[in-house]
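can u do me a favor
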């Protein structure tokens, strides 16, 4: 094995590591964005309009 092969393997390994780090970062950003959107949606729901929901339970025997 010559020195150029070792250098090529090293560059390839570092490129794979970078690809994995970038992929993980993009996925984390997507998760944070969707979490923020979900929180905004939940905050926008008007709870006062739903005051009667869940107040009664109908049971059939």
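np, heres the sequence
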């Amino acid at each position: 094995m010559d020195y150029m092969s070792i250098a090529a393997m090293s560059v390839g390994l570092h490129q794979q590591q970078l690809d994995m780090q970038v992929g993980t970062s993009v996925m984390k950003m997507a998760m944070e964005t969707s979490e923020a959107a979900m929180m905004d949606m939940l905050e926008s729901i008007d709870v006062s309009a739903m005051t009667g929901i869940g107040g009664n339970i109908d049971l059939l025997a």
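The helical segments are 3-44. hope that helps!!
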